Amino acid sequence: MRACGMDFGTSNSAVSLPVSAGGVTLAACEDNHGTLPTALFYPATAAANTPPLVGRQAQKLFFEGEEGRFMRSLKRLLGTSLMTQNTVVNGKPRGFDRIIGDFMQHLKSKAETAAGSTLDAVVIGRPVHFVDGDSAGDSAAERQLAAIAKGCGFKECTFEFEPIAAAFAHERRVEEEKLALVIDIGGGTSDFTVIKICADYSRKKERREDILASHGIRTGGNDFDKQLSLAAFMPLLGYRGSYGDKNLAVPLAPFHDMSEWSKINFLYTPHMRREIADILKASHAPEKLARFAAILEHETGHKLLGTVEDTKIALTAAAQTEAPLDFIERGLCAPVSRGDFNRAIGADMDDILNCMSACLADAQIGAGDIDIVILTGGPTETPLLQEAVRAHFPAAQISEDERMASVAIGLGHAAARRFL
Ligand SMILES: Nc1ncnc2c1ncn2[C@@H]1O[C@H](COP(=O)(O)OP(=O)(O)OP(=O)(O)O)[C@@H](O)[C@H]1O
Ligand SMILES: [Mg+2]
User: Which of 20, 163, 232, 372 could form a disulfide linkage to 184, CB 3.0–4.6 angstroms apart?
Assistant: First the structure.
């Protein structure tokens, strides 16, 4: 049986292959890149049933203004009622399961090219919770993903928690047993696992006894984008404004939806354009709300949220930055400081750190018992989180190797153990 590991991430995905001598490699899934942005673009001009463009290529075409339907953050839909609905792609209904299937098919075929053979089995990573506080939603999400994998031609499909996979990737270098806390913060979720790791243990078929606790919440880097958007960008577009003689509040929901990757497309309706146009006539800050109307008209919401995300990432290295918004209005820009960003994500960060504490409590250990903290996922670079982790575990070793790939690599190790 030929098997692979697949990290279907909210923002980035990767697929890995066990190789000889117990090693694992990432398959090149777009040119020479080992990771692929989880993004699809269905060009309006393509014939029906043509596979969509994916990854960087999808982003490039969409941001260059090519007509078509662009999608990101699809993982957020798993386990929700939206998965059973169709969406309109270039005038034709298409189920979200087929759309995720289009993406998975791409990963599978890239992995098969790298392996030089077809693949029949896959270990797919899953967050500790796809949907907060909804175990039925969690199992629905797994069932949906498994059905999609089968539809792509995998005969066998099993799952592994993403933070546990990250621990598998790291433990190869650990000679004696250590107690590790894995902190996996991705685009959509923050997951924590306390696990005993050791190079020798990677030979064990069953690891249940080594896992002391796993906790997770549905808060991640996409939520940081949302908070930063609402704090520093949406106010420039009329957010929290008022209109009319009675000083009515401009509805908040469209601004919230404009700040969420998975909801932007739903704003581009005649109804929404009309609603904003009507409010604009009586707005007390028409110059601002007109910018929101322009984004609806030109469908530049993803471009705006992309700018918000770039600003967030820039604030990892810089204390202050200025986001260019010329595509909305010539000369418009949003000055943002790291302090603004830290304040915006304060409540999300509290939730993340509370989840970490709950995980340690569930494992019945204190912070001082942790030997190694393994950081994985893009948002673990966030200075506020880095500071909190270093303050919480002053004596622990902090390991940040393969931040963007350790989940996929660990899933490859799990695939080797289960199927080869
Ligand atoms: N330097 C950085 N500072 C802060 N955030 C970053 C940085 N680089 C990337 N990110 C954020 O990391 C997130 C993507 O991380 P990653 O690829 O690990 O997530 P994912 O695996 O797709 O998501 P999940 O595991 O939740 O399904 C995005 O929100 C991105 O904006
Ligand atoms: Mg991830």
Answer: 163
